[in-house]
Fold each of these.
Amino acid sequence: MRKQSTLIASSSLALALAACQFDVASTPPPEPELTRVAPDRGYNGEAVPVVIEGRNLKPLITQDVSQPGGVAVDTTFVARLGSTELAQVTYVNDERLTAMVPAGIPAGAHALEVETPAGDKATLADAYTATATPEPVLTGVTPTDVVNDQAETLIVTGQRLSDGMT
C-alpha cells in the first residue's frame, strides 16, 4: 500500500507541475522603456530629486516552491546618468521610479540608463542636463497690475538673479 500512495503522490505532483508550465520562449516579457525624467535639468552643485517615467519597469517576482509562502519581490533598480549612478532609486509602480541625482555630476547632457532587477536595460538619450550654475528663482514681480499700452517699470525679485538677465 505504501508504494501505491507514493506513486499517487508523485503522479499528482507531476500533474500539478505540468499544469503550471508555460512556454517562456513564445511569450517574452515586454522590454522596459523610458519616456522622461522630471525635472530634466538641475544644478550639479546639489543633489536633485527626480522622477523617472516609462513603461514595463517591472520588479522581479520569484517563487521558491520548497518554502511556504516562498514568493519574493525584488524592486532593486539601478539608474545611471552617463557613468554617474543615481542614489535612492525607488520603485513606485511599473511606470515610475524616483531617484536622487547626486551633487557633482559633470555638467552637460546625460543619457539615462535603467537596469531592472531581472537585468533588462532601457536607455533614454539626453534625458537630463546638469548645469554648472544654479537656475534663478523668481519670487515676485511688482507692480502686479499694469495698464495696456502704457510703459511700466517692473521690479523682479528672486534668488540667483544677475544684471542683464532676460
Amino acid sequence: MVAKIVSTASGLLALMMSVASCASEAASEEMMLSMQREDDDLVAARSDMQPAEPVSKWRIFTTNPDLSAILATPDLAVGTRRFALVITDLSGVISLPVVELSTYRYLNGSRDESSRVGPIETARAKFHRFPYGSRGLHVAELVFDSPGIWSVEARVPRADGEVDRIEVEIEVFERTMSVDVGQPAPRSVSRTLADVESIAELTTGSAPDPNLYEISIADAISNGRPTVVVFASPAFCTNAVCGPQVETISNLRLVYSERADFIHVDLFQNPAEIQGDLSIAVASPLLEEWGLTSQEWTFVMDRAGIVRGRFENYAPEQELEVAMLSVLEALE
C-alpha cells in the first residue's frame, strides 16, 4: 500500500480557516481532487511513515494511488459511532451503493504493522448522495471498544473485477470533543428573530427559513418537546463533507414541526457583516459550549434535553429522520 497523511481541522481557529479555504462549489470540487493528488513527499511506503499527531491528522493507505478518502467524522471515541467518509478516485466521488468496511486495532498504542489485529468488525457502509450535484458519502455504524489507534478499511470493487482497498488510520479517544449521545445538551441562549432587526444577522444563508430562528436552544430544551439543532454556515459550507444541512433540517421541520422544535445556529456571530470577508468573522460562542471542531453538526435531543442523535458534518435526511422518529416514538 501507499500512504498519505491528511490534516484535519482542530479547534475553533482551524475550523474557521477550513471554512475560509472553500468559499465556492468550484473550490470544493478542486479541493476534493487535490486531496487525492497529495504532494510526492507525503506519499511513502507504509513502513516509512511517522506517527500522526492525535486529532490533527489521520493517515490513508491504499492499494491504488488514484484512490483517496476524506474522513467526515474525525471526532471519534469509544462506543458505537457513526463513521462517514467520502471515497474518491480521479473521476470524482465513488458512489457505489454499498462499500464493505472492516475495522482493525493496533495493540499497545503502536502503529507497527505487527501490532495490527483484526478484522474486529465488518459492516456495510451505505452511500448517501447530497441533494445537489455529484457529491455524497458512505456511512456505517462501527463499534470501537477501546481507545487507541484504529484503522478502517474500505473495499472498493473495480470494473475489471478486482478490488481496491483504502484504509483510514485514526485515533479513538475515551471521550468525544463534542457533546455526546446520552449527555444533557447545553442550555445555550441562542439568538432568535426577537433579538435582531434582520434575519441576516442570524445566518449566512441566502434564502433562510425564518421558522428555524423562532426559539432559543435553552427555551426549546425546557418546553418538553424534542429538539433538533444544526450548527452550520450555509454560505461557506462547500467542502467535500459539508452539505446543505440547514435546508435538510427545514425539510424535516415541514413534516414534524407540530411535534418538535428545529433550530439553526450559524457558525459566525456576525454573518451580516462578513459579506464574504472571513477576516472579520467572529465565531459563535456556542461552538465552544458544544465542543465543536468541524464545520457542520446536527444534534437530536429528546423531551428531557438529552442528546439522542449526534451527526458530524453532513447527515442526509434519511439518517436524521431515523433519529427523529426514535425520539418521537419514545413519547408514545
Amino acid sequence: MDRAAVRELLGEPDLVEELDVPPESGASTTWSYQHLALELSFDEDVQFKLARITIFDPGAEVLGFRPIGLSKSQLRRMYPGVELVYSFEDMKEFIDEALDVSFWMENGRVVNFTLSPKYVVDDTIPCWP
C-alpha cells in the first residue's frame, strides 16, 4: 500500500516525520495519526510502500490479547515466541518472528507494538495479509 492509498483511507496524518538515520538503511517517512493511536512508516528500500504499523492503543489486540501494559513475564506468557533483541536502560524490544510483531517496553511495561509484513520479490515488496 502506498502513501496515496493510505491518505485516501485515513486522511491527512497529524504529523509527518522524515528520517534518514542511519543513512545506509535509506530514508523513512512516518505518518502519525494521533486520534487512531498509530504510526505508519514508509521506507525508501521498499519504494516508500507501507513498511510498518506501530500501535499505541491499549485496546488493540494481537491474537486475542491486549499487549500494551503487559509486564515482561506476562508478555512471555501470552506470546511464548517473543525474544529480547534490544535492551538499553529501561527500554527493551521483543520480537515474535513467527507473528512479525515487535513489542517495545519502557519501565517494565509494553508501550507499543509494531506489525511488519512479509516481503515478496527479493524482499522488496511488502505483502500485508
Amino acid sequence: MAAPGRAAEMIGTAVNDSSSENTTARVSPPAHPRGLHSNARTSEVRRVLATILVLNFLVAAAKITFGTLTGSLAIAADGFHSIMDASGNVVALIGLAVSARPPDPNHPYGHHRYETLTSLGIAAVMLLGLFLLVQQAWDRLHAGGAPVVSAASFVVMLVTLAINITVTIWERRVGRRLSSSLLMADARHTASDIYVSVSVIVALIVVRMGIDWADAGITFLIAMAIAWGAWEIVRDATFVLSDAVAVEPEQIAATAMSVPGVEGTHNIRSRGGEGWTWVDLHIQVDPSMTVDESHTIASVVAREVEAAVGPPADVTVHVEPADEGHLGEERGHDPYAAGGH
C-alpha cells in the first residue's frame, strides 16, 4: 500500500482535480498513430480512394469494351464487376466526407461510425453486382454460344489482373496502417477482382479448348467469390457497430495494476473502430489519499493504458476507495445495475 503523501512523487506529475471523493480521470489523444492527425488520416484515405476510383474506371472500360467486341460474357461481367468497384469507391468517398466531421452536441464521440456504415454500402453494391452476374450467366447457359478468344483477350486480362493485385496490396497496407475499415472493406472488394480475373483467364483457356459452357460456368464461380467478400465486410462491420471488445481486459488490467498506488481494478470495458479505441475502467486506491493524489494516479493510469492499447485511445478512469465494497475482479457489465457503481 502506498503512503498517501508520496503518491504524486511515486507516479510523477499529472493534471490534478478536486471535485469529489470518487474522481474520474480522462485522457483523449490529440493525434492519430504515427503522428497522423485525424485530418491527415482522412485526406490520405480520400486520396487512396480517389486514385483507385480512376483505376477502376479504366479497368472497367477496357474489359467491357473488349468483352462486348469479342462476345465474352466472362470478360464483360468482370468489367461490370469493376464498375461495381468504382461505384463502391464513390459511396466510400461520400461516407468518408460525413465521417470526417468533428464531434458536435448530437455526436459527442464524433462521426467515425459513418465510415463503418459506408463499408456496408460497399457490401450492398457487391451484392447487386452478384445478382447481375448470376442473371447473365443463367441466360448464357440457356441461349448457348461461345466468345471469340484471341491473344489480345489474354493480354487485356493479364494487364488488368496486374493492376488489381497492385491496388489490393497497396490499399490493404494503407488500411491497416490507418486502421480504416473503409479501406480494408474496399481492399477485400478489389481482392475479389483478382479471383474474378484469374477465373476469367481460366475460362478463356477452356473455351479455346472447345468447351463453350465454361464462359458461363466461371461466371457462377465469380459470383461466389463476390458473395464471400460481401459477407466478410458485413461481419467486420457488425463487430464494430455492436461495440464488440476491442482490447482484452487482462491487458488493460495488467497495465493499470503496474501503476504505483493502484490496489485493484474492475469494470473494464473497451470498444473500437476506424482507428480509435475507447476504454473505461475502475481502479481502487488507498482510501486515505486526497482527491488530488488519487486523481493523479488515475491520470497516469489513463496515459499508460492509452500507450499500451495503442493511440489514439480515449481512456476514462474512475477512482474508488480500496475497501471491501469496491475491491473485486468483476462487478458486472451493467453500470446501472445494483452494486455496479
